[in-house]
# Entry
Amino acid sequence: MNKPAPDWHAAASALRIDGRAFVGGQRVASASGETFTKTSPIDGRVLGEIARGRTEDVDRAVASARAAFADARWAGKAPAARKKTLQRFAEKILAAKDELALLETLDMGKPIQYSLGVDVAATARTIAWYAEAVDKIYDEIAPTAASALALITREPMGVVGVVVPWNYPMIMAAWKLGPALAAGNSVVLKPSEKSPLTALRLAELALEAGLPEGVFNVVPGYGHEAGEALALHMDVDAIGFTGSTRVGRKMLEYAGRSNLKRVYNELGGKSAFVVFDDFANTERAAKTVAGSMFFNQGESCNAPSRVLVHEKVADRFLEVVAAEAPKYAPGDPLSGSAEMGALVDEGQMKTVLGYIDAGATEGARLVTGGQRARAETGGFYVQPTVFERVRNDMRIAREEIFGPVMSVIRFKDEAEAIAIANDSSYGLQASVWSDNVNRAHRVARALRAGTVHVNQYDEDDITVPFGGYKQSGNGRDKSLHAFDKYTELKTTWLRIDAA
Ligand code: NAD
# Structure
C-alpha cells in the first residue's frame, strides 16, 4: 500500500533548522559567531539563523579539506570503495527525501511535489551515477616507441571550491559533488545565502554514509564574503561555479588575482525556442514552451525565454500559449498541487516586475499575466507572463529575467530566425521545431548553444553534458565529461631498456 502523502504544513511547522556550518565532519558556529536570518519566500516565515561564513571560516574549511586530501583518507581509497560510500550517500538522500524536499521548498519557494520528484530524485541519481562510473573508467597508454612507456593518468585536483545558486540548490551542488568526490577530491561548498538549508543536510548525510571527515565541508554565507574568500583562496585548486554571468566574470578575476585556480563557469541563459511554420503541431510546441518556461517559476538557466515564431503561425501559437499560461498560476507550494510557487525573495520579485514594466514601456504587447499574485500570503509570487511583438533589441529579449516572463518575437524566414536566435551574449540552450528534417538539422547546427533540442524541450539526463557557449560559461556539468573538470591529466614516461 502507498504511504499517505505527508501533511506538509504540519511538517513545516515542526521543523527545527540547524544553520551552523559543517567543517571537518562537525556542525560549527561561524568564527565570529555571526548569523543571518533566513526567511521563506512562500509566506515570509522565519526559518532559522544561518552561520555567516567569512574569510576565517573559509580558511578553516579549506584547511580541513586539504588535510583530508593530504593524508589520502578518501583519495587513497580504491575506486570501488569510493563507489560504495557514494552509493550509500545516494541511498541516504532518498531515505531523507521528505525532509530534503521540505527544506528546499521552504528555502526557495518551489512546489513541494517538484522538490520531491525532481530535485531530490535528480540529486540522488547524480551521486549514484558518478559512484557507479568511477570504477569503470580506465586510464590510457600512449602509442609510443618500444623503448618507452607513456602512461596518461587522471588524478584528483585536490581541494575543489563549489559555489552554487538558489534555483536548484541540491541539483546544482550534486552536479559538482558527484564527479568531484567520486574522483577523490575534497570539497568546500558555498551554497547561496538564499538557499543554504539542503547543502548543510547533504553534508551530514554524506558523513553518515561513511565519507571521511573533512572531505565535504559546507560554509554558508554571502557571496561577497564567503564566496569571494573561497574563490580567492590560495589553497583551492579549482572552483566549480554555477550562477550569474556577472559573478562568473568575478570568478575569473579572483583566479587571476590569486593562484590561477581552474574556474569552471556555468552561467546564465536567454535560450531561443524557434518554431517554423512547417511544424504541423503548433499546439504541441506552444504547450511545451509554456511548460518549460514556467517550470520552477521561470527560474531556470535554460528556460526558453526568447520564443521565435514564424509569422504565419504566430497568432495560433499565441492563442494556445495565452490559454496555457494561466494553468501555471502560482499557488501554495506546500499544497502538493500548485504548478508554480514563489520567487526566491522580494528582491527577485521586484526585479521581475521591473522587467515587466520595461517590456510594456519599450512597446511589447502584454498577452497575459504581468502582476504580483498571492500578496496576502506575505510571499513573493508573480503571474505567468507573456509578451509578444517583442523586438530582439528590447531588454526583455536581451537580459536574463530569471522569472516567469516569456518574450515572443515574430520572424519571416529561416535566415532571419537563425540571426535573431544567435544575436545574444548567451548560448546555453536552443530549440528548433520543424517537420522538415533538412531544416531541423541545418538550424540545429547553426544555433550557437551548448544544447539544441529538436521538436521537444524536455529531454534531460545525467548521461549528457550540460553547459553553455559564449557568456553562458565554459564548463560542462553532467556526463563523464565532468570528470575532466575535477581531475588533472598526468603523463608518466618510463624507459624500457633493450635486453
Ligand atoms: P549569483 O551569481 O548571484 O550567485 C551564485 C552564487 O555565487 C551564490 O552562492 C552567491 O552567494 C555567490 N556569489 C555572489 N557574489 C559573489 C562574489 N562576489 N564572489 C563569490 N561568490 C559570489 O546567481 P544566483 O542569482 O544565485 O543564480 C541565478 C543565476 O544562476 C542565473 O544567471 C542562472 O542562469 C544561473 N544558473 C546557471 C546554470 C547553468 O547550469 N548554466 C544553472 C542554474 C543557474
About this structure: The mean pLDDT is 98. DSSP finds 15 helices and 23 strands in the chain.
